[in-house]
Structure formats: structure tokens, C-alpha cells
Amino acid sequence: MDMEKRPLIKALETYTKEETSRFHMPGHRNGKTVPSLAFLQEHLYDFDVTEIDGTDHLHYPEESIKASQILLAKAMGSKESCYCVNGSTTVNYAMIFGLLKPGDEVLLERSCHQSVFQALGLRGLKPRFIKPQLDPEWALPLPPALTDIQEAYEKYPMIKAVILTSPNYYGKVAPLKEISHFLKMRGLYLIVDEAHGAHFAFSDKLPPTAMAMGAHVSSVSFHKTLPVLTQGAVLNLSEDLQESERSRIRHYLRVFQTSSPSYTMLVSMENARALMEEEGEALYDQLLGEARLLREQLARIPQVEVYGNEDAFTDAARLVIRTPLPGEFLMGELRKKHRIQAEMTLGNSVVFILSPFDRKEDLERLPEAIAAVRTENEELWAGPVSPFILHYSEEMELLYDLEEILFLEQEEIPVENAFGRISAETITPYPPGIPLILPGERIGEKEVGLLVELFQGNGILKSASKSKMGITVLK
Does the CA dihedral 15-17-20-21 come out positive or negative? Predict the structure, then answer.
């Protein structure tokens, strides 16, 4: 096979041949440690079919898919759960469109995923922001507390729903039970982007699911932490919704999801649900014990700090560390010299997604590799941890509607000249896919400094501008 004519296949083959320890999504870890995936791999093309007699229909399930989704709902603790082959982005769209009408006010975190903001713009909703909270020591985003919701509700009493991300990218979980109680007493919806919490349903040593804590709806990315092909996601609908509300959400799931669903993705989700029901508790007991030992080993390396506590508001399967090295440098060294790939980096912090399907030798290699990077970079390691503040616009207000911006006159300017200008585009580090700048936000001095720093980094900052150091603003 001529690989020069197949550059993407060539790149993926190269990565596979590296035999890298993968601490990034998807959760199947290329399937080598999941015996049941061998059967699915063997039948990969056999199972790639369409809606014919005997295969049911994802959008209008009546047979095997319906039976599978009934089992799924039981596992998720929901009134109803639906498969989605377009990722939790599509589920977020369906939830928002199904529960809210154009012109409605919505309360949300400024650190929501870009798909939430895209849905708000398309639906013509008015975003109202909860005051961002940062961990005082690590400067990482924290989920809002009940008091943050109460304070925002007093300021914006016309809101119809609250949209929260729980857990966030760093494993922190919002106090959804008390928040949901507060909102239900006022007739407000709680919509939860639970993309990173698919595994919560399968171990009582992990935080409770959004469904268990009273959310009306939640989106869950099965592929992020479970042995599922990328884009496999689930929509959960609670018993607190009326059938008319669930019907609208199902309608929009059909609108935004492909009409040609991947059966290979569907069976990977079904298999993961069954596998985790059968073995998930034991698998996570073992993983969390190994993760605890891993954290202890990392904490013994001088100037390595480990984020988070093992409690009801923390996902113990998410590992975040901080060192004196810039995170992108440490992540690069781990990949180039030690064949270890992390999920993402922010400032001096590096995020690793741990999975029960990680090989024990891969987990054991991680502290050894970080200690080796320290030895190889003693001068850099001896320096202080540089402060890095993830900063959002202090105005906390969009001066234009998200979709209106597209039809206004724009120009591209160097980012260092953007102070005081109104952004015409979304600037998003990916991962985690949380916009630093939204269309319609005024760009402040701190945002300019942060953008310049990130634009000069490793290229994770995604922008529609043509030049690397450019930003599109309103004229």
C-alpha cells in the first residue's frame, strides 16, 4: 500500500508503531487490553451496515436498538437514554434546543465547552454568566457552588435554565444535588454537560452521576473514558421531564445527528455498557488503588505537585500534575523521549486520563519518566513554578448576539493590538475546547497578554484568523 498517497493513514500508523503509553481519550487504549473488543475488531466491516430488516433504526428504534437503550437507561439511572454517534456536542445541541425557546435567558459557566456556546447562538438564547471561580493555588477552573448559583439567580431572575459542566476537564464535580434542589423549587431546568463522567455510573467509589444528583438532562461522552470508538455519546433524560419535553429533545437529536448512523459505533457503546456492568466495579477498584499509588510516587519527586483530593467531588481517575517546567515542554519530552502521551496541558499543569484499561507497566513507567525528565532538565527544574492564570473577560457580557456577529463588518489585526476591540471570532485552546474569547466580547489587557502567550505556544490555540498571531475583530 502506497502510504505517500495516504498521509493520514501514514500518520496514524507511525503513532501506532511508536507503541506509546496513551493517557488520552478514547478510553479503549487501542483495544489491546479489552478482550471483548477483539470480537468487535474481527467484525468491524461485517457490522458496518445500514437500516435494513433486522438492524432496527436509531432515530425510531423499535427492536434491537430499543432493547439496547432500555438496558442503557437502567445502567445510567435515567428515565430514558439514547445513543448518539455524533459525540456529546450533538447531545448538547439537542438538550438546549429541546428545552429552551429563542430569546430565553440561560445561566451558565463561562468555562462551558464551545458546543454549548454554539448551541446558544444558533438557538438565539441570551447567555448570563456565573462568576468564574478558580482554584486559589492552581488557578484551574472550579465548578460553581450553590451560593454562586443563588447570587447569579438574584441578578438574573428571568433565566429558564442553568447549564453546568460536571466533571470539568480537571476532574472536579459540581454540588449538583443541592443545586438541582434549588432550581427545581423555582421551576428551572438543570442541564449538565457530563462528557467526562461516563464511568461514574459503574463504580460507587466515583462521584455520583448527574442523573443521580437531580439533573433534568445530561450528555455523556462514552468514548472519553470507556472502551468506545470516538464520537460515541449518550443522552440521558430524567423522570422529572414531561413526555412532551423528552419528545422535543428526541426530535432535535434526530435533527442534529446524522441520518446514517455508524453501527460499529453503536455496538461499541453497547459492549462497553455491558462490560462495565459486569466488571466495572472491580476494574475501578483496581485502577483507583493503582492511581493512589501513582500519586504517592509522583508526589515524592521533588517539585512535582499532584492536584485534587480523593473525595465525592473529585474524579480520582483524572490525574493532574504541576512541575516547574512549562506543561507543553514536559508533555513534549514525555512523548519524544519516553513514549508517553498525555491528554492536555495548561500552563505548568499536565492532564492524564487514567483508564482501567491502562496496562500496569504503563502506569509504572509514568513516575520513572517524569523523574528522568527532571534529571535531564535540572536547570529548568530548579526554577520556580511560573504563575499562569486562565483569564476570561471581566465584563462577563456579550455586546452582540453570537450569530449576529457573522453579518457585521470585520477585520483581522495582530493580537497584540486587540486591546479594547470586540472579538468577531471564537478563540479556543483545544483541548479542552473552552473558548477564551467569544464573539461579541470586548478584549481586555489581560486577555491580550494571555492570547499572546498562548499563540506563541505549541499550537493548541484554535482560531479562524489566517495568520498565527492574528485575531478577527469588528471594524
Answer: positive
